[in-house]
Amino acid sequence: MAHKKAGGSVKNGRDSVGQRLGVKAGDGQTVSAGSIIVRQRGMTFLAGPGADLGRDYTVFATIDGKVHFEHERRDKKRVRIEAIAPAAASAGEVA
To answer: Which residue(s) pair with 84 in the sheet?
Structure first.
């Protein structure tokens, strides 16, 4: 006769995939309009000029430019996009 007890089921034997949250574009980085800058849960990062807040609190760029992070309060940061001056367009209009 076998003297092996029946193995019970494990209660903690599962895991979920990561949600890929966090900062996607760093300070001073050039982004195009529509680029995701921060994926977050809640409003740690606030949208400033040139950025907007999505339905799931994603901060994304509304204009082409450089990303800048600033402290709004001690616990909140504001993300703004500084528009890049189109140097190529102004150089082509020399009359």
So the answer is: none
User: Tokens 């979920």 belong to which residue?
Assistant: 16
Token match 């400033």: residue? 48
65: enclosing H helix or E strand = strand 65-71
Query: Is-contact 37 59, C-beta < 8 A?
Result: yes
Condensed to tens digits (0 to 9), the pLDDT of residues 1-39 reads 667 777 777 788 788 999 999 999 999 999 999 999 999
In the structure encoding, which two tokens stand for residue 35, read together? Answer: 């680029």
- What does pTM read for this prediction? 0.74
Q: How far is CA 89 from CA 29, 43, 51, 78, 84, in A?
A: 21, 37, 24, 30, 12
